[in-house]
Amino acid sequence: METIERIKAHYQFGSDDVKNLVRLKPLMEKYRDEFVVEFYNYIKNFEEAHLFLKDEATIKRHQDALKIWFMDLFKGDYGHHYLMELEKVGMVHVRINLHAHYVNAAFHFVKLFIQDKLQAEFKDPEEVADLEWSIEKILDINLDVFTSSYIEEEKKFFLSQRVESYLIQLANRFSYGLNLILVFGLVVLGIIVIGLLGWNIYHITEGGIESGLLSTLGSLLMLWVVIELMDTEIRQLRGGKFAIKVFLNVALVAIIREILITTLAHEALEAQLTLVAAVGVLGVVYWLVARAEL
Ligand code: HEM
pTM of the full predicted structure? Predict the structure, then answer.
């Protein structure tokens, strides 16, 4: 957290600047109300201003707060309390999610407004330049504090940055490890399915060729599912996108295999129709997901 003394030192804001600003106070008092009117004329061009200044009550509160803020620029006391006030205003803008760009643009207006008044009131260009210099500094200090509020908000952590990034790293590694175990499990499953396929081929003629062929086809489908799952898993481990389609694939294959079995067992027509309907629904969902993933 910066202290106001450090901030002032970085902007080389000294007693001459304080004198200049205090000197301007009575003059700026005269322009206080005009400042707010012109400020609002300026920010009404911001496309999203109405989203923040959404009703008369908010606008009134903001305009009153702006008058106080404007006059505080010339109050001569720029100590810790002043910094606290600025930080509070900065946080209000952050909390309402006001884009930092709007604040910067509004500051641009403030600078122009005050410069314009100085040029109208003072004839000596050197005097104007000297006063403008002090105005620049105090406005830059204000903008600095306002902007820091946005950065502070981004830096928020629950415990501490180091602990949290360590935890995230640990969770990442753990999840990578789990994925590797999953791949290993799929390899084992693949070997078992290959065994089953071999067994089915070996006994293809037992209990009728039709039944043997359908059982073999069932094993082939299972092998295909394992390959699909493994492929997806490997792609994800290499940093690819997680493909939700693969789960639909598995469900589709499982139901198609079930249809093969129920056909062989000559089960009731309703049971078979239910499975066919399920394949239809899954097929539509698969098509929609595939389109969305394109
Ligand atoms: C030079 C730039 C600006 C200054 C100096 C400024 C000043 C202030 C101040 C002093 C407050 C009161 C904070 C508090 O409650 O303690 C405030 C609040 C607020 N400001 Fe700004 N503001 C600026 C730019 C803007 C802009 C560009 C917008 C919108 C487009 C905006 C919208 C608001 C809103 C919505 C609030 C909260 C009002 C409420 O609900 O009470 N401000 N601002």
Answer: 0.61
